[in-house]
Amino acid sequence: xxxxxxxxxxxxxxxxxxxxxxxxxxxxxxxxxxxxxxxxxxxxxxxxxxxxxxxxxxxxxxxxxxxxxxxxxxxxxxxxxxxxxxxxxxxxxxxxxxxxxxxxxxxxxxxxxxxxxxxxxxxxxxxxxxxxxxxxxxxxxxxxxxxxxxxxxxxxxxxxxxxxxxxxxxxxxxxxxxxxxxxxxxxxxxxxxxxxxxxxxxxxxxxxxxxxxxxxxxxxxxxxxxxxxxxxxxxxxxxxxxxxxxxxxxxxxxxxxxxxxxxxxxxxxxxxxxxxxxxxxxxxxxxxxxxxxxxxxxxx
Length: 300
Known about the structure:
The protein is of the alpha/beta class.
């Protein structure tokens, strides 16, 4: 199967609009053409036949709630489609960049034409716009969002810092979402289906027999904190396997493990009658950023 985002070896350079939202990505709306037909191929606002539009096979959003879609179709049938669909020229027609849900609802409402904004986007810009629009509308589940980030990083050379500016979120948020893709696919699907929250899924990363643990979490209706404790209990204690840690206090060792699991970092506690020190060891700037975000209260 052909990769819808395949590109040549030369990756595009970051654009100046990165991090300024949809307005920057779409351009100045004040310069749009008046609504009209599709006789020309230049960018602008116009109306196009519904049948001339096709969905992008690589767009981030893959799951559409049927009840919400039907509600939107009813609204469109009564009031028309107010917000244009963003498209780009593709073959003999146009490919949807942002607004596939509106396009689906317009079809159900039996509209013959829809308002569109035509833009000559490349593959990276197409994914950027689709990602930003879906995130702003909170339409993506955690796995879809993570996969979109991974696509932009792997195929188009984006960094986590660039993505953070694009979607106005911290690098640690991007990093935490990307970690969800380390979970087995069946577990990811349960996040997509809404059976498991992002918080529950994060708590299970790195635990053995994750799928069995997920069954327990869902069956018992465990909270995120209870899920964290369940995951910790399932992990083997490396000190126990090595025959101890030089006689260190077992409670301190357990606390180090607990904090390490919560933070995803190596934790060391040195305690004495006069106090002690807590040492957090990080391997990447993303991990350091995550610690700073938590200490400042920005990330919970």
